[in-house]
Design goal:
Largest sheet of chain A: none
Structural class of chain B: mainly alpha
Shape of chain B: globular
Helix content of chain B: over 70%
Shape of chain A: globular
Distance between the termini of chain A: 73 Å
Largest interface: A-B, 29 and 44 residues
Order of helices and strands of chain A: HHHHHHHH
Helix content of chain A: over 70%
Largest sheet of chain B: 2 strands, antiparallel
Radius of gyration of chain A: 22 Å
Oligomer: heterodimer
Radius of gyration of chain B: 21 Å
Number of helices of chain A: 8
Number of strands of chain A: 0
Chain lengths: 177, 461
């Protein structure tokens, strides 16, 4: 019973703040609303018993990503960040059916996916070992190659961002020559 | 235990890339040429290490598989990368943008493609594809004081990310229907599996630039530094067709496969071949030629028949040699002051640069499919394969599209050989690396045309 109450509390906050993300005019409020969405989604994960995913959600999205948004806001000039016209009505109307189709598709996938997916093999493991251990065991055995590849992807992404982001004149400020 | 032997070429590549990364920290722009030349030897080392790999083998909990076909693909891939790296230093020096990072970025991209060839699991496939694509987004955008290259990189990034998204969603649907991320036989037909098939095929079609997912191709090819365009047009295409030939065993039983692939290929062939006539820039024209070739290659994937796929793989291998050669010729020409790739700039080229013009003509004749070149053998075997698979309409469409394509290549050659140029340019110096690449590509295109069995017999299923 208490689980349901908490679930509705968190999902209510999430929906309300998501509306805030879309409708609030001030970029700072938008980011705060986004933060609130992310935290409440993390709460939903905790209720569902996926404490690892919840913790990662908090660490990566709520902390790292939001901080990045704040950085971007401080870097971008204010008059450009504030939208002149807050509502893109035509675009909204055009994209609405697509968004609706996406949600219907997601619901369908969940409904069908539950019936086809493996018959609860993981449920046993999770109750036996706990969340973090199960994810770790799979990540560092079956998907170890993928895990290592991620580090390379991050490396090349970082290098690329540095190369493209720096000023071209400063590419070679050669102190030695 | 991990079977390190199966990973040998990838280890060589990644160690090489990391070594260059560290060397790059301690070097300045004076060492640009040295670093790039060093990096060109890394794929050659990886190429040699292929000889010591025992196959067939699987490692990392069966997520990584080595077999004869993937080794052949890796050999060609390393060869192409090495040739690109040999040919690019002079272009960047002439353009005044010696980015030493180039040396390891292309190696990391090739590493991604190399892992792509051996993945048996959608997760590692996805990551390998991302590794190679991100490397290419960066490679496209680094040219100093050149706005089009930034624009090209940005467009490529945006559209490429759409492809990545489709691949990820497709993998999710695949998991939902099959219950595993491993590629395996799955005979059941349901909507989820069809969606997975559709999304994964779309993502890969986007990466090989088939119509209607081709929008990034002309812009990215035109904006990118020309040697990098040579890389974009060859190495990823080669790897992706080997991957698609691998995937055909798992997907082609679905009814939708044949329809999707043939629609993609017919659209690509005809759309690109007609649009190419409207192009004024030769570099952009070659981009459309690449889209048209994506159409031809996809014909080889319509039905699962070893004969057809062998023809396809031979064709794509020799095609990448000819394309790389022509882009290297273009990059050598672009070093001249004020030269754009507009077709009018090509008039009277033969008088100034006879050797470059003749090699350009050789590559263009090869792309049309004139007999002594290897691409003719590719076209012929693909055509015969289609006829034997009782797909006569597709075979005829292929022949007609190839005929249409001849015109726009020939128009460039007419400008090069028969027309008089108005502007005088300072003659371009061809660097040793460029000469080597052009020579090797043209020799291989001719040799494999005269003795196609040298490569054809190596393609085994």
């Amino acid at each position: 019973m208490i689980q349901w109450l908490v679930f509705f509390l968190f999902s209510g906050i999430a929906v309300l703040s998501a509306l805030g993300v879309v409708f609030l005019p001030n970029p700072i409020y938008v980011i705060l609303a986004l933060l609130s969405v992310l935290v409440s989604v993390a709460g939903l994960f905790f209720i569902a018993g996926a404490e690892l995913v919840g913790a990662i959600q908090l660490l990566i999205y709520a902390v790292a990503v939001t901080v990045f948004y704040v950085f971007v806001l401080t870097a971008v000039p204010w008059e450009k960040a504030i939208k002149k016209d807050p509502f893109y009505r035509v675009e909204g109307l055009i994209s609405f059916p697509l968004v609706l189709a996406l949600y219907v598709e997601m619901v369908l996938v969940f409904l069908i996916g539950v019936s086809v997916s493996p018959k609860g093999q993981f449920r046993e493991l999770i109750t036996k070992f706990g969340n973090t251990e199960v994810v770790g065991a799979i990540l560092f055995s079956k998907y170890f190659l993928a895990f290592e590849l991620v580090s390379l992807v991050l490396l090349i992404g970082m290098i690329g961002a540095v190369i493209i982001g720096r000023k071209e004149a400063q590419t070679y400020e050669d102190h030695s020559s | 235990m991990v079977n390190w032997n199966a990973l040998l070429p990838e280890l060589v590549l990644s160690l090489g890339a990391l070594t260059l990364f560290i060397l790059e920290l301690f070097s300045s722009r004076r060492h640009f040429r040295l670093l790039v030349l060093l990096s060109a030897f890394v794929p050659l080392l990886a190429f040699l290490s292929l000889l010591f790999v025992e196959y067939p083998a699987r490692t990392f909990f069966n997520t990584f598989e080595v077999n004869g076909l993937s080794l052949l693909a890796k050999a060609l891939l390393y060869l192409l990368t090495s040739l690109v790296l040999f040919s690019l230093y002079d272009y960047y020096e002439a353009k005044g943008s010696p980015y030493t990072e180039l040396s390891y970025l292309s190696l990391l991209s090739t590493l991604g493609l190399s892992i792509l060839l051996s993945s048996t699991n959608l997760i590692s496939l996805f990551l390998a594809l991302e590794l190679s694509s991100i490397g290419m987004y960066v490679l496209v955008s680094v040219l100093k004081e050149d706005y089009p290259s930034k624009e090209a990189g940005f467009k490529y990034l945006i559209i490429g990310s759409a492809g990545t998204g489709m691949f990820a969603l497709g993998s999710a649907f695949y998991y939902a229907s099959v219950g595993s991320f491993y590629l395996k036989e799955y005979r059941d037909e349901n909507t989820l599996f069809s969606l997975a098939l559709f999304l994964i095929l779309s993502a890969l079609a986007l990466k090989v630039s088939a119509v209607p997912y081709h929008f990034w191709t002309p812009d990215a090819y035109e904006g990118a530094p020309t040697p990098i365009t040579g890389y974009l047009a060859t190495a990823p295409k080669l790897a992706l067709y080997f991957l698609l030939v691998n995937l055909i065993n798992y997907f082609s039983h679905a009814k939708q496969w044949f329809i999707l692939v043939s629609v993609l290929s017919i659209l690509s062939m005809f759309y690109a071949n007609f649009t190419a006539y409207a192009q004024r820039s030769v570099k952009r024209l070659l981009a459309y030629s690449s889209i048209a070739h994506a159409g031809y290659f996809l014909l080889g994937l319509t039905v699962a028949k070893p004969e057809l796929q062998k023809a396809l793989l031979f064709y794509v291998s020799v095609y990448s040699l000819a394309t790389l050669g022509s882009f290297v010729v273009l990059s050598a020409l672009e070093k001249r002051e004020g030269f754009t790739h507009h077709i009018l700039d090509y008039r009277g080229l033969f008088k100034e640069h006879p050797v470059l013009s003749v090699s350009l003509a050789l590559f263009f004749f090869a792309l049309i499919g004139i007999p002594p070149m290897a691409l003719f053998v590719g076209k012929l075997t693909l055509f015969m394969g289609l006829v034997n698979a009782t797909l006569l309409p597709l075979a005829l469409a292929f022949a007609v599209a190839s005929l249409i394509s001849a015109g726009y290549y020939l128009r460039v050659l007419v400008a090069v050989f028969l027309e008089e140029g108005e502007r005088k340019y300072t003659p371009a110096k061809v660097s040793g690396g460029e000469a080597f690449t052009v020579l090797l590509c043209s020799l291989l295109v001719l040799l494999l045309g005269l003795f196609p069995n040298l490569l054809y017999d190596l393609i085994k299923f």
